[in-house]
Amino acid sequence: MEKKVVFSGVQPSGSLTIGNYIGAIKNWVSLQDEYECYYCIVDLHSITVPQEPKNLRKNTLELLAVYLACGLDPEKCTLFIQSHVSAHAELSWVLSTMSYMGQLSRMTQYKEKSQRVGENVNAGLFTYPVLMAADILLYQADLVPVGEDQKQHLELARDLAERFNNRYSPTFKVPEPLIKKEGARIMSLQNPQKKMSKSDDNENGYILILDKPEDIRRKVKRAVTDSIGVVRYSDEQPGIKNLIEIYSAFSKDSIEDIEKRYEGIGYGKFKEDLAEVVIEGLRPIQEKFDSYMKNKDYLESVYKQGAEKARYISNKTLRKVYRKIGFIVN
């Protein structure tokens, strides 16, 4: 029986946070045993904001090393760099001719980012959800792991798949969201109403996968809590609830066990222990990362092998699309 196909990707825009690890990559690792997985470094998406070329190259290679260090196995899944597979840009153009300006202008992320940028917002920021749809549809993905904030973009991919299928005959699978319940959305340590993000102005709001132990201890110590003083998993205590989520993700202890362990004990001790749990959880990842970064030849072999497979699969879809819309296929 054929395995269902999963597609996902992350932008190479600097070090990832533990939110990216808990909410996405840790989940990807478990999916690679059950599904046919395509995991991409979406460097084409990253240039919707200006990038320093040498930093983009460095960040791309480091992200691949992080993928591997977190447990993604190139023998079990396809790891590749988006710009190495030209079909992504080609299908994006085709789909952009079937995308409606009104629908794209309603994208929440576009509205938020364009307000920050002002009238000089670039066209790529407006159309990048179409490229995201192309990423997904090229591989005939059945499932796409998404957080709540990305569901709108997946809806566009579904709409475009159905629109193309209705106009030209069935061509694309219509992908479904794969939403992880627990730990899917790790929040800022400084503002537990906001998702943890490396673009946060306050560096104490996030912990990076590659952060040093002393930085992790400092950030956890400064994490926002409340005046209740009880370690309890409750919506009334969003700061503590978020910290318990992180503790549970790294220790694999249940939330109930964590609550019992810290019954009658203040936040100070809980935060001290949480910092050490995170440090120990990240230690093997950081050690593997350092090892991969010293072996650039291996990293090159991984992304070349991944691109070769991704090109083969994506070109089959693209040729089918080209034939159906009336292009003479070479």
Structural class: mainly alpha
Order of helices and strands: EHEHHEHHHHEHEHHHHH
The tally of domains stands at 2
The 3D shape can be described as: globular
**Individual helix count:** 13
Q: Please estimate the helix content.
A: 40-55%
The name CATH uses for the topology of the largest domain is Rossmann fold
Could you report the average pLDDT, rounded to the nearest whole number?
A: 93
Radius of gyration, CA atoms, in whole angstroms: 21 Å
Unreliable stretches (pLDDT < 50, length at least 5) are none
Major sheet attributes:
3 strands, parallel
**Beta fraction:** 5-15%
Second rung of CATH, namely the architecture of the largest domain: 3-Layer(aba) Sandwich
Determine the CATH superfamily of the largest domain.
HUPs
Strands, count: 5
Order of strands across the main sheet: 1-2-3
Intertermini distance = 33 Å
CATH class of the largest domain: Alpha Beta
Write structural notes for this entry.
55% of the residues lie in helices and 7% in strands. The protein has two domains: 5-184 and 296-325, Rossmann fold, CATH 3.40.50.620; 203-290, Tyrosyl-Transfer RNA Synthetase, CATH 1.10.240. Helix 3 crosses helix 12 (267-293) and helix 4 runs parallel beside helix 13. The strands form two sheets. It has a three-stranded parallel sheet with strand order 1-2-3. The chain has a two-stranded parallel ribbon with strand order 4-5. The chain is globular and about 70 Å long. The protein is mostly helical and 330 residues long. The mean pLDDT is 93. The chain starts with a strand and ends in a 5-residue tail after the last helix.
